[in-house]
Design a protein that fits this description.
Blueprint: E1 3-7, E2 10-14, E3 18-19, H1 24-36, E4 41-45, E5 51-52, H2 54-69, E6 73-77, H3 81-90, E7 97-99, H4 102-107
Helix pairs in contact: 1-2
Length: 109
């Protein structure tokens, strides 16, 4: 589901083109398993995402909570205009740290 790269103690994941009710549960479970396995510093690259719905936003929030509880964090990067609009409307920019690139997000840890 996610293309994954690990550099040092940061795991970068490239999200699929759509994050919605069809795949948000699988995405949440995959990301939570990573956190539970010790990968609690996640960068999620949204540069290829053309659509995201409320179930996917909920999944991201669940993973963020788990990562922070484990002493880590979730950083987002590469938002496309449709995804950026959703994050602006929901004010999730106040919750997530958002960066222009995966490199910048990873460096922020």
């Amino acid at each position: 589901m996610f293309e994954t790269t690990v550099i040092g103690n940061v795991t970068t994941l490239v999200a699929p083109s759509e994050l919605d009710a069809r795949n948000s549960t699988a995405a949440r479970d995959h990301l939570k398993r990573l956190v539970e396995g010790g990968a609690n510093r996640l960068v999620i690259d949204l540069s290829g995402v053309s659509f995201i719905d409320s179930s996917a936003l909920g999944a991201l929030l669940t993973v963020l909570k788990a990562a922070r509880a484990a002493g880590g964090d979730v950083k987002l990067c590469g938002m496309t205009p449709p995804v950026k609009t959703i994050f602006e409307l929901t004010r999730l920019f106040r919750v997530f740290d958002v960066f222009p690139s995966a490199e910048a997000a990873a460096a922020s840890f």
